[in-house]
């Protein structure tokens, strides 16, 4: 059973490899009657796009989205929406040398062992390029959620290496190439990345997602809790190694009297829970922290083996991000939006009578 | 769409409230031909059982498992396995006072708002009592995985409050009531819990799960990666607020050259990835860290509101664990086993030709 | 991947063998706030119950339904509903002789070959006894559909052998043991069945299901059309060999100008389509015809083989219905109700904005 | 919840409207290592293709399939396969007149009422053009099933109007434009269709699908029986109104002693069951009969209403098949193949240990 679909009611199914003809997806379950234009999707795709600044990969893709179906006169019809992005700037030659070699930290070894074959060009299906279609599908969800419920799903870079980027305001985020919410940290980040590029190395990052204006009641206990489904969708993003809801790992050292969110007439007094109790949204902001590992494609020489088990030394060529965490911001927003949208539709289906 | 089922091929569906007649589940997709007796399940249920020591809730339940179907002459037949545990020691009177009040940190508020009705007795469906059937179902998976592949799934308490329990050996774990892997820390934990009980307070915890002898190749990119599905199943456990695979949040501050696991002829040289690359198991140990919040049922007075929005003060009576993290060890093992089992069967279905 | 669950939003999962301790099911996705008592379920269970007349099997089961969860003060809470029926009148000894023999027309051979093991007692999981839980789950759906939408789902015996029972009125149906809608045919049926019992033989039947007051709009093209999902759920009933929607096989010889249902201001002028166009309900009555094969458990001697491939002669003992089609009426109603309920909830989830 | 996906392990998701840019699908769960070229798919697409003879619609589409992903050096990699067919010969102008009118027998009315909007051009998503992607996906399944198990899935026209086409041999079928298995009937069919075209009318048909060399053991009781899943997938084809397995509706008038298939050392003596017992394949040929209604797009004037409820007279223009049943042969083969493939993979996942 393959795993290229996410969501149960709002369903996203994707295909495509890094150096294949195209990347594509089908979004099923989109409510009819939603105004939807190409530019609604292109905006987020451009935020994710490579080659925008000297701080990300130099691969240049216009990531021009083509909507194939499900929309008539710019309105969704309730039928499945097919979308496509063609790959333009593949340099498959760069990858000939890794045809038989497993790059450390990459999925080369596991794909080869699992399937007995792999498309080695640009990492094939395991490439971060796969995430374009997540962003496109997520943009549909984002638009619907905001239009109908004013739900906002936004993220930012909250840490890179040891540089903590405490949140100042949302406006800053779109005005720098790092999705950093704090002007004072931008110079430091620039410096860090330049150093890493010089050394051919990379660094990890933490990003934070905030969901505002979410209604109380989303989430389906006991297994499809909202936090559980968010954990699934976010951990499915390349390079994610940890996820926290609300206080996350800080709870280990908290007392019950500290952690529990008390209430008064006006609502909750605190938000340690991160907006989810018993797997169901409380109506407070949902707060998610995500840890992303450093890019494995670096120019520092490393040890590995080839398909035949022989030991080799390898330097990963190609054009890569020194920190994949940066461009992960729109991707994590998209995955969050897909899951929230799915749960909004699930909520309506069972609880229709009391809405 | 309700969420009481987990797994796609090995499927577990549960029902039951804290103070209802019974808790039950149906496990579908169990391979035929597996020797399975009641005692195989009872062993793990007893590890999770309340009332075993003075350090956990005093509610006394024998948690006697009844297998209703799917087994003939102690061998699984391939048909669905129905199981039941009857509730014996309910004290529903304890909960009359919270009939109209939302206990802080509990799911009372969210269930009421979502469904317009809730079974307030003992927390109803949101009670940790629901996890018994997870343990029963997980025990079937554990048995199969060990018998056929020597896969071991085991957990321990790695931190409680600020007491870190560094791993010594597995034998210790079953010989103390805390699943602590380090004899030197047991006294400290006892003291901490006694203090908390005196104050009517509670504390968070971290637990660690290790999967040994797992074959390379489990996990279904791009959405049903092994890590994503593990994140889902573990985050679906009551009180879990964070999950890490391998180095987890430590990756934020790692360089690519530090994090990536290099290889030589004998295999991987390190295991920063925690045994999963590109969403597929590498064959190394899978390492999972989990953060659990402190019990919200405490005797420290707190502020809340009632069903009508009036402000109230509340002290949570009833019999509760001062640290839910402790008994979560067998539950997290069970959820891990369910997910690994599901992925083993998924792996076989698609990759049968190369096995 | 096992197949003991039906429905995507309204989900029914069952377990249980003919001679096991109990039969049970979990119904997930039931809307909260529905008044539901045991008697709501028992009524349909009694209609299906064996041993009611001399025209069905003599096995006497009270089929007393026990609701274990999901209901609080007789109102559904939105959590999963667990239900149980205990087996009382098993005569497993009757089946010792078929331990190693494949009864012709039964699932003995296929279960043995598929799973390598089978519970031969009473046919195990393949027994019609499994359908009790379908009826119980279906009764929940029926109650909701009628209460909220006045949707009525009713069936009758439309043919048995060569006796055609043209519909007269619904009242007659519940007043004879055959669910026959025509008083003039009852004597003939009684005579037919008495003859068959004397000869130890059995006969096929056709039943008809009518759904009234169904809203326009149910069904999810292109694969989960309402007719496709009805075909699935009804064909999943033991002994069903054919299904028709509307004119069914009669369309082979119809002209387009005869078949298509024209419309005027008041609605459709005819109902050849059987209430479904393009996989979506039209709002007209949905009409389904179902063919059920004759019981394979007969006293006429037949040829078969045993587990070792040796040829044997066999007479099937035990207590059996001379026509399984009769008791299939409440079962087919239940399966229809489950599917309609599932699609009602699906409809709401996607089309909420225009409802 | 939308319904554009079929299958649980071998999963096909489609998109596309009759007059949209393209039709497309994603096939997930294809085993890795299968040799697959464009021509493997094109062959069946050409069999389904419109405009091949004067007996089908004159719309000319080359139905040129483009494989976008999931194949590397002509071998499947285990990742999802994206496929595309561009629409070339749309005459959307032909449909302007039905923009606000519900064509009798079509899905115009139900789509409009369900979604509040519809792409009226060529019937939009409800067009038979949607089935191209079923044929493409089914061709992958067919290739795998034949290569690995010699399973053959083939169909023929068994009746059109009152012309019964009793089976002679498979070779004839591909040599006439009607998939008729009997040379003696071809002239009659030609004559019938010419008459219908002259009158602008249409006719129903029956087609038969035979599955040969299927292993014993496929099918997942109790709900996902092989016959139930076949009924689902086949009833999901446009225009299908009835389905039979084996003797189908003939069983109504059969005795148990006639119907049950007896066995001797060499196997089954008859095949009344149509190759499925208890929802599981017996290893005999699976025999399926399907009834397809006459095309609703005819030139005979009919009564209908428009979007505002006004009564109108309508003649359906455009280019249409006088008998949709003819081109349904490759479509029904494809849907059958998809379901058999899905069940083969399901079978392996649960019963791996005894294979």
TrEMBL record, chains A, B, C, D:
<dbReference type="GO" id="GO:0009423">
    <property type="term" value="P:chorismate biosynthetic process"/>
</dbReference>
<keyword id="KW-0288">FMN</keyword>
<protein>
    <recommendedName>
        <fullName>Chorismate synthase</fullName>
        <ecNumber>4.2.3.5</ecNumber>
    </recommendedName>
</protein>
<keyword id="KW-0285">Flavoprotein</keyword>
<comment type="similarity">
    <text>Belongs to the chorismate synthase family.</text>
</comment>
<keyword id="KW-0057">Aromatic amino acid biosynthesis</keyword>
<dbReference type="InterPro" id="IPR035904">
    <property type="entry name" value="Chorismate_synth_AroC_sf"/>
</dbReference>
<feature type="binding site">
    <location>
        <position position="278"/>
    </location>
    <ligand>
        <name>FMN</name>
    </ligand>
</feature>
<keyword id="KW-0028">Amino-acid biosynthesis</keyword>
<dbReference type="GO" id="GO:0008652">
    <property type="term" value="P:amino acid biosynthetic process"/>
</dbReference>
<feature type="binding site">
    <location>
        <begin position="238"/>
        <end position="239"/>
    </location>
    <ligand>
        <name>FMN</name>
    </ligand>
</feature>
<keyword id="KW-0274">FAD</keyword>
<dbReference type="InterPro" id="IPR020541">
    <property type="entry name" value="Chorismate_synthase_CS"/>
</dbReference>
<feature type="binding site">
    <location>
        <position position="48"/>
    </location>
    <ligand>
        <name>NADP(+)</name>
    </ligand>
</feature>
<feature type="binding site">
    <location>
        <position position="54"/>
    </location>
    <ligand>
        <name>NADP(+)</name>
    </ligand>
</feature>
<comment type="function">
    <text>This reaction introduces a second double bond into the aromatic ring system.</text>
</comment>
<feature type="binding site">
    <location>
        <begin position="293"/>
        <end position="297"/>
    </location>
    <ligand>
        <name>FMN</name>
    </ligand>
</feature>
<dbReference type="GO" id="GO:0010181">
    <property type="term" value="F:FMN binding"/>
</dbReference>
<comment type="subunit">
    <text>Homotetramer.</text>
</comment>
<feature type="binding site">
    <location>
        <position position="319"/>
    </location>
    <ligand>
        <name>FMN</name>
    </ligand>
</feature>
<dbReference type="Pfam" id="PF01264">
    <property type="entry name" value="Chorismate_synt"/>
</dbReference>
<dbReference type="GO" id="GO:0005829">
    <property type="term" value="C:cytosol"/>
</dbReference>
<dbReference type="GO" id="GO:0009073">
    <property type="term" value="P:aromatic amino acid family biosynthetic process"/>
</dbReference>
<dbReference type="GO" id="GO:0004107">
    <property type="term" value="F:chorismate synthase activity"/>
</dbReference>
<feature type="binding site">
    <location>
        <begin position="125"/>
        <end position="127"/>
    </location>
    <ligand>
        <name>FMN</name>
    </ligand>
</feature>
<comment type="pathway">
    <text>Metabolic intermediate biosynthesis; chorismate biosynthesis; chorismate from D-erythrose 4-phosphate and phosphoenolpyruvate: step 7/7.</text>
</comment>
<keyword id="KW-0521">NADP</keyword>
<dbReference type="InterPro" id="IPR000453">
    <property type="entry name" value="Chorismate_synth"/>
</dbReference>
<keyword id="KW-0456">Lyase</keyword>
